[in-house]
Design goal:
The protein is mainly beta and about 200 residues long. It has one domain: Sulfite Oxidase, Chain A, domain 2. About 10% of the residues lie in helices and about 35% in strands. The protein has four helices and twelve strands. Strands 1, 2, 5, 6, 9, 10 and 11 form a seven-stranded mixed beta sheet that branches. Strand 9 and strand 10 form a beta hairpin. The mean pLDDT is about 90.
Length: about 200
């Protein structure tokens, strides 16, 4: 279960690493809608479904034993804070692609998480080399506030796209906006273009 590779997110190589309208923080603010869900590892499942050749459902022992990567990245929250120099450890989106065996019609993903939370991504954004399903942050297991046991991390988009408490990935032919996207947040969320709200 050792590390397979370390990926450095391209944004960390920018000369100016703080996007427009952001301020650097040394902390790690906790922001989410509603209460922190209680997650039971004995009941937890990670499901891959939709436009796949065969649906996959992994329990915690199977998921946590998949090959892991480390990703070095920055974080940019739509509320205006940025946190530099984060190291994540978990299962890459590329590893999930190998498990899922997508059908040719698949163009988008909808990430599913506890309490019905969802967020949407194009396959292009989802399969970037720095995207992973994180189990650890800076060498320590995620805390419940930050998405334990598994959170998606999409470093190059605003942090609401990095869904906490992930339970599965649905592969789609057509885009389907998620929770925050249907509430007025931008459908894509590029911090360098300040894609905060609207489309």
């Amino acid at each position: 279960m050792g590390d397979q590779e370390t990926v450095v997110s391209s944004d960390t190589r920018r000369e100016q690493r703080i996007p427009p309208g952001q301020k650097q923080t040394g902390g790690f603010p906790v922001l989410h809608y509603g209460a922190v869900p209680r997650m039971d590892l004995d009941q937890w499942r990670f499901d891959l479904f939709g436009l796949v050749e065969q649906e996959v459902s992994l329990g915690w022992p199977e998921f946590s034993s998949l090959p892991r990567v480390k990703v070095f990245s920055d974080i940019h929250c739509v509320t205006g804070w940025s946190r530099l120099d984060n190291t994540w450890e978990g299962v890459s989106a590329g590893q999930v692609k190998e498990l899922a065996r997508l059908r040719p019609a698949a163009k988008f993903v909808l990430i599913h998480a506890a309490r019905g939370f969802t967020t949407n991504l194009t396959l292009e954004d989802f399969f970037q080399p720095d995207v992973l399903f994180a189990l650890k942050h800076n060498g320590k297991p995620l805390t419940p506030d930050h998405g334990w046991p598994v959170r998606l991390v999409v470093p190059r988009l605003y942090f609401w796209k990095s869904a906490k408490w992930v339970t599965g990935v649905e592969f789609l032919e057509h885009d389907r906006p998620g929770f925050w996207e249907t509430a007025g947040y931008h459908n894509h969320g590029d911090p360098w273009k300040e894609e905060r709200y609207g489309h």
